[in-house]
Amino acid sequence: MVLAAPRSAPLEEALGEGSPIVVLDRVSLAFDDKVILKNISFTLLKGHTKIILGASGSGKSTILKLILGLLKPDAGVIWVNGERVDGMTELEMMKVRADLGMVFQEGALFDSLTVAENVGYKLFEESDMPRADVRQRVDEILGFIGLDDHVDRTPAELSGGQRRRVAIARAMAAKPRLLLYDEPTTGLDPITAITVDNEIVKLRDIENVSSILVTHQLRDAFFVATHEAVHDAAGRLQVVPAGLDKAEEAEFIMLKDGEIAFEGHAAELRATSDSYLKTFLS
Amino acid sequence: MTALVVSLVKSGLLEIQEYMRLQGQTMRGIVSRPFYFRDVVEQFEEIGIGSLTVVLLTGFFTGAVLALQTGITLDQFGARPFVGRLISASMIKELGPVLTGLMLAGRVGSGIAAELGSMVVTDQINALRALGTDPVRKLVVPRVLAGVFMAPVLTVVANTVGIIGGWLIAVYQLRVASSLYWTSVVEGLFLQDAWMGLIKPFFLGFAIVTIGCHVGLRTHGGTQGVGRSTTNAVVASSVAVIAVDFFVTRVLITLLY
């Protein structure tokens, strides 16, 4: 079963442990006279998390759309999974997207499909996987996010939190190596938001998925950065406060007026003396 | 003032460019893989079977009212028995294709624009692309195929029930003998008329569906934008039906007669 785009052996080796999975180099984008992003550069390493913070309209979601190839930059270079994507055609991007998953704001579930059809969409429509295997994977993944009794419901019958979790399930169904989250907890109550945060942490640590999380919910951002998923002595999956090494695998980027105003770990962000950052964090 | 005119011309040209590009992508989608057969079948049912009621009713009452109106006029020349000839010629050559087109513009064009527009504003189109699906192949190609092939079928249905509607009025209201009516219907038709009635709906169906898809996919501005797109799709495709009908008729007259 091939779910992701096939890659050459040297490229696979080059993208081994500790290698970059996403690289943005001096990326800029403007819509007419309005500058959205200006000279954005960062690197996401395999298995790590990048958390992009910023006020509304600061260009956070645009970065995800650029990585996914939904938008093209005016300048700069973007590498995803060892492929340069900034100049790719839509057809070429389809191969890169085979290894990406995206959780959109509000979920963007297909409202005419059931939960199971939404989750299994990519496998059913865009892969040669037998239908029985698709069903098995859908059941497995809905079990993982705790929605296995909602298989035949439509998105309209789900709560906001359930919709986000189904969106996460849909994004991870084809086992991508990179997951992009666009404000996955916005508009959710704190309890439900923590449930979604737990899924993000579990996916990163158990399924070893690299992730970029765009949010302006500080509590969720710090939760994801400072927690890890582990199996306890009884083999149960638990989300616990992360050790120092694990916490260093999550990096924050703060955007301000389309530029990077801060890049560093959770502890560095908390200790910042920058007045804008302090206002944002307060 | 000049800036406004320049801006209007620019946006008009942009719309035409994007519309032509969508048509190109649709053509490529029709002749290359992947091809979403299940969606094509669904759309044939949605556009074809789903539009049957409105087309049946429109066709029937158009034929009936045509018989009523022409009966009065034909009486002045003592030509009431020729009512069948007039109805069949009018329905098959002009009224059937145009009225079916207008009904499809109202039902199908608006439906497509609203559905695709909603998908745009709720990020479902972006989600499709993120999941590796080309929205044109998945959403536009099935609708265009269904529109192009179901419009002629629906037109034939409208023509048939229109002539039946005319027959009911001719027999029970105008007191024309049934056999005389049907003889008149057949005598009034030439092979070229049938071709014209069959060829035109292909173009009308194509125009209605591609306009609906184009307007839907270019929706912006949330739910208000969806409403605007729906209205624009109906207006644009209704005007297109009349305009395309004129131009195709002009070409067919040159080619067939």
Layout: helices, strands, pairs:
The complex is a heterodimer of chains A (282) and B (257).
Chain A: H1 9-14, E1 20-31, E2 34-45, E3 49-54, H2 60-68, E4 75-80, E5 83-84, H3 90-97, E6 100-103, H4 115-119, H5 121-126, H6 131-144, H7 160-172, E7 178-182, H8 190-206, E8 210-214, H9 218-226, E9 227-231, E10 237-241, H10 244-247, E11 250-256, E12 259-264, H11 266-270, H12 275-281
Parallel strand pairs in A: 3-8, 3-11, 6-7, 7-8
Antiparallel strand pairs in A: 1-2, 1-4, 4-5, 9-10, 11-12
Chain B: H1 2-31, H2 37-49, H3 52-76, H4 83-121, H5 124-130, H6 135-172, H7 178-187, H8 191-217, H9 222-256
Helix pairs in contact in B: 1-6, 2-6, 3-4, 3-6, 4-6, 4-7, 4-8, 4-9, 6-7, 6-8, 8-9
What is the total tally of β strands of chain B? 0
Low-confidence stretches of chain B: none
CATH superfamily of the domain at 19-99 and 176-281 in chain A: P-loop containing nucleotide triphosphate hydrolases
Q: State the major sheet of chain B.
A: none
What characterizes the major β-sheet of chain A? 6 strands, mixed
Strand content of chain A: 25-35%
Mean pLDDT of chain B: 93
Question: How would you portray this structure in words?
Answer:
The complex is a heterodimer of chains A (282) and B (257). Chain A is α/β, with parallel strands linked by helices and 282 residues long. Chain A has a domain of 187 residues: 3-Layer(aba) Sandwich (Rossmann fold), CATH 3.40.50. Chain A contains twelve helices and twelve strands. In chain A, a hairpin with a 5-residue loop joins strand 9 and strand 10. In chain A, helix 7 packs parallel to helix 8. The longest helix of chain A is centred in the C-terminal third of the chain and has 17 residues. The radius of gyration of chain A is 18 Å and the shape is globular. Chain A starts with 8 loop residues before the first helix and ends with a helix. In chain A, 41% of the residues are buried. The mean pLDDT of chain A is 86. Chain B is mainly α and 257 residues long. Chain B has one domain. Helix content of chain B is 87%, strand content 0%. In chain B, helix 3 runs parallel beside helix 6 and helix 8 packs antiparallel against helix 9. The N and C termini of chain B lie far apart (48 Å). The model of chain B has no long low-confidence stretch (mean pLDDT 93). Chains A and B meet through helix 3, strand 6 and helix 5 of A and helix 5 of B.
